[in-house]
Design brief:
The chain is of the alpha+beta class. It folds into two domains: 140 residues, 2-Layer Sandwich (Fructose-1,6-Bisphosphatase, Chain A, domain 1); 110 residues, D-Maltodextrin-Binding Protein, domain 2, CATH 3.40.190.80. The chain is 33% helix and 26% strand. It has seven helices and 14 strands. The strands form three sheets. Strands 3-4-5-6-7-8-9 form a seven-stranded mixed sheet, sandwiched between helices. Strands 11-10-12-14-13 form a five-stranded mixed sheet, with helices on both faces. The protein has a two-stranded antiparallel sheet with strand order 1-2. β8 and β9 form a beta hairpin. α5 runs parallel beside α6. It is globular. The chain starts with a helix and ends with a helix. Bound molecules: D-MYO-inositol-1-phosphate and calcium ion (CA) (2 copies). The site of one calcium ion has 4 residues, from β4. The site of one calcium ion has 6 residues, from β4.
Length: 263
């Protein structure tokens, strides 16, 4: 723990709140929507406005830090001590449809390891924070994962990548096995919030196959600091790339991995 962790946390919180305010203000207004990698992969003017605000402030206040931001506004370089990994709007499809589940996600790494994580849901005014070694909180209240030990009583969530309509690795096989096994499965369109919901004990588990660094940089730390576990599909350390993300309350981790290992 260093004093700099606190400085970084305070700045991440300020930026997440500021971007969240833009999202709330422009929610259900007439903003521009475009497509990216596929017809179902959207980006709005608001994604760009949030990213610009975050990146410009970081460039001014932390010029030595590297930035990986989803819409390409940041500059990354090797050997940076601090790296900000940013999803300016996680849940863009929801946002574009006026479905009120989306957030800002800011993860900060120090020397390659997650050090600070902040996720802000502006519609519920819920701020999730974590600092490595110091626990996770929701609006300042300590977070703890659920105690559930039985898969058949578990509520879990997943998501699908934007190549779902053309890829054979479409996650539908896993979706079917979980639907037939657990209490219920949710697909609510914001991976960063899904991870925070595991941390908060609202969900018992979550998996997704093809996420990106900005989807998980904050959420993975928040889950771990709330006492949960995050790994890849084989139970190895969580991948910074976001590929094969499995998160749980810990008790259910082996059972979830077993189910995902079925063909
Ligand atoms: C997406 C959301 C969604 C997940 C997708 C992500 P975006 O992020 O987190 O829940 O299923 O894989 O790409 O595009 O809204 O930032
Ligand atoms: Ca995302
Ligand atoms: Ca995004």
């Amino acid at each position: 723990m260093t004093g700099e962790d606190d400085t970084v946390l305070e700045l991440a919180v300020r930026l997440a709140r500021a971007a969240g305010a833009i999202q709330r203000e422009r929610y259900e207004t007439n903003f521009e929507v475009r497509t990216k990698s596929a017809a179902i992969d959207l980006v709005t003017e608001v994604d760009h406005a949030c990213e610009a605000l975050i990146v410009e402030t970081l460039n001014e206040e932390r010029p030595d830090d590297a930035i990986v931001a989803e819409e390409g506004g940041g500059e990354d370089w090797e050997n940076a001590s601090w790296r900000w990994v940013i999803d300016p709007l996680d849940g863009t499809t929801n946002y574009a449809h006026g479905y009120p589940r989306f957030c800002v996600s800011i993860g900060v790494e120090r020397d390659g390891d997650g050090a600070v994580g902040v996720v802000f849901d502006p519609m519920l005014d819920e701020l999730y924070t974590a600092v490595r070694g110091r626990g996770a909180a929701l609006n300042g209240r300590r977070l703890r994962v659920s105690e559930e030990t039985e898969l058949n009583r578990a509520l879990v969530a997943t998501g699908f990548a934007y190549d779902v309509q053309r890829s054979r690795e479409d996650n539908l096989n896993h979706f079917a096995s979980f639907i037939k096994t657990v209490r219920a499965v949710r697909r609510d369109g914001s991976a960063a919030l899904d991870l925070c919901y595991v941390a908060a004990g609202r969900l018992d588990g979550f998996w997704e196959l093809k996420l990106h660094p900005w989807d998980v940089a904050a959420g993975n730390l928040i889950v771990a600091e709330a006492g949960g576990r995050v790994s890849d599909l084989s139970g190895g350390p969580a991948l910074r790339s976001g590929q094969q993300t499995v998160a749980s309350n810990g008790h259910l981790h082996a059972s979830i991995l077993n189910l995902l290992a079925r063909p």
